[in-house]
Design goal:
Two copies of one chain form a homodimer. Chain A is an alpha/beta fold. The first copy, chain A, contains six helices and eleven strands. The first copy, chain A, folds into two domains: about 5-70, Hypothetical PUA domain-like, domain 1 (Ribosomal Protein L25, Chain P), CATH 2.40.240.20; about 75-235, SPOUT methyltransferase, trefoil knot domain (Alpha/beta knot). The first copy, chain A, is elongated. Chains A, B: It catalyses: uridine(1498) in 16S rRNA + S-adenosyl-L-methionine = N(3)-methyluridine(1498) in 16S rRNA + S-adenosyl-L-homocysteine + H(+).
């Protein structure tokens, strides 16, 4: 937790109040906050501030804002991922948020186990988004969309997201083109499931405007490939 | 598991034998292997082969090699990481191995909890190295070294690892220089603990030849920053 994220309603009075049990306990136990300490605070979907702790009571931790701070910019990137195992999903959401992805799409695919769509984590995505934002020092949640049918998404939704200055790259082994580096424009990145997209899916993606690109001859897990690709694409 | 890693002793006779319970169970349960299937196999510290399954018995799975395959090249990089929490350590080792890091050094630092050095995971590093190699399709384990004292390592060991074509970069927020991109030479990457190196440690690293470089204004977790930095550095 590198900032404390507050709901706008918690910052309406002159003194702001941190009341969420998770945040209060973390600040008391791990950070050992004291009256007079400064604390970085973000307002959800809003600005970021350096604040000072005015009092610590049974109702929470009371703050006054000192000065505005910069909210880190996002990468102009849409991440489309074949729905991963629940444990991986949690990390993937947190990491994608921390790294500044603008939009996340979870997509069904042939090799995705249908049970993955039943995970209770899907009801808790907002919690993992919050953790990712608090890690990064960001305040703006990415958009998250779910598409449980591959073909209608790829044929009817995806093409309208692709343009010459916002291409879509499918990570795919065994192709000659390589994933670009240090790009100066936005893009969509498409990551398959464990075991990869099936040939029919790759063909349909390419037919609908995507470029299949390789990341070299190492096979990298979904949750690892996302920071690896983002570091590579936005390295300028 | 994208290849099955065998000990050289398992490949001495004409037919090779997969006997490790973990590997046999994975291949039977998840891959549902059958006699006649081809299987990618690596010999630890050796070559990689496409093989064919000749028989499946109570003793394991018997193979014959068909043809040699390419072992993926490593990145010329040494990763020095402040000893992380045990759970993070496990992932970090697997990811660093999967991504092709040549050498990993685990280092003590002021903000590292001393108890981390007692974790049983340290006795199982070789297992996580194996999992990382099997994920990547690699056969060569990176060197792993442990240094439980920060100052003697930084003053007596680190300087001899640094040269003009093998610089050392400390990831550090709030500095003006940024982490380079698309480098064509080897390097050492130094990643601090949760909460970062203390100023004394950063100063000592710089005094002994390291360059402090920033990764931007998002604060990224240790296990996420490693693939992010590797993607960025070796993006050419």
């Amino acid at each position: 937790m590198n900032i404390v994220l507050l709901d706008p309603r918690q910052t309406e009075s002159e003194l702001w109040n941190i009341s969420a049990k998770r945040q209060v306990e973390h600040l008391k136990t791990h950070v050992d906050v004291q009256v007079g300490d400064t604390l970085k605070v973000g307002i959800r979907e809003g600005k970021r501030y350096l604040t000072q702790i005015v009092s610590i009571t049974d109702n929470g931790i009371q703050l006054k804002p000192l000065q505005e701070e910069e909210v880190p910019a996002k990468h102009p990137v849409t991440l489309i991922v074949a729905m991963p195992r629940p444990k991986v999903l949690r990390r993937l959401i947190m990491d994608a948020v921390t790294l500044g992805v603008e939009k996340i799409i979870l997509l069904h695919s042939y090799r995705v186990d249908k049970s993955y769509w039943q995970t209770p984590f899907l009801q808790q995505l907002d919690h993992y988004v919050t953790l990712g934002l608090e890690q990064a020092g960001d305040t703006i949640a990415p958009k998250i969309e779910l598409y449980k049918r591959f073909k209608p998404f790829v044929e009817d939704v995806l093409p309208s997201m692709i343009s010459s200055d916002y291409p879509a790259y499918v990570a795919h082994p065994y192709v000659e083109d390589v994933m670009p580096t240090g790009i100066q424009h936005g893009c969509t990145i498409i990551i398959g499931p464990e075991g990869g997209f099936i040939p029919y899916e790759v063909d349909l993606l390419i037919k609908n405007g995507c470029q299949a690109v390789s990341l070299g001859n190492r096979i990298i897990r979904t949750e690892t490939v996302i920071p690896y690709v983002l570091g590579r694409l936005f390295s300028c």
